[in-house]
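Escalated from tier 1: protoporphyrin IX containing FE holo job.
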Amino acid sequence: MNSTNSRTILLKKMMAIAGLIWFLYLIFHMLSVLSFHSGEAVFSGFYLWLNSSIFYPILLALLVLTISFHVVIAVSRQLSNNESVGERYKKVYPKAIPRLVAWLGASIMLAFIVIHSVQMLSTETVDLYQEIHSIFNQPLMWFIYGLGLLSLSTHLHHALANVLQTLGISSAQCKGLSVLIVMVIMAGFVSIPLGILYA
Ligand code: HEM
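Tier 2 regenerated the structure:
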């Protein structure tokens, strides 16, 4: 195996590890926000504790580092891929759509993560429960969160199916399992605005 190949494989593995860290965070975050259904004291109390904990700055730094790494490697791999593929890259329009759609989806997901993190981390209030209520009283926020969750679910589905296949699970099982995992995570997040709507 030449050095370019082993470097490519190493970068792919590191990208997958960065993605895995975000996947674990996503499960932790989904379980944390589910405490919303237990009421104001539990939810706001949990986030007051988390925000003042020693682990919080470490968590934030880890999330920023891993997502930046993941994005930079993905973009640079795509750019060098374009160069090496050369003329073949200039596909006729319909064939280029999946690649465009994938990158559009990933960009929407990234934009959502940035908007949501800035929105949450810049809030002055200690009562996050009320803050979440006021966020989901705005139709624009339903649109932004809907788009964010949709793009996240397609990205996650694609990534999980790839990882599961690498782990030796058959292609058909991978698709089913990744759909199930994504649906459980999404149901957890979607239950928050729906809980507010039907309260
Ligand atoms: C309905 C869905 C969601 C709700 C209600 C929600 C709520 C929250 C809350 C309450 C915080 C904490 C603010 C603080 O600590 O002061 C937060 C932070 C954050 N959320 Fe979400 N979130 C949702 C979906 C998502 C999704 C899908 C992602 C995607 C990756 C995400 C990523 C983050 C990040 C990166 C932070 C900053 C780190 C942290 O405090 O944990 N959130 N969100």
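The pocket of protoporphyrin IX containing FE is lined by residues 26, 29, 33, 47, 50-51, 60, 63, 113, 116-117, 120-121, 128, 132, 145, 149, 152, 189, 192-193 (CB under 6 Å).
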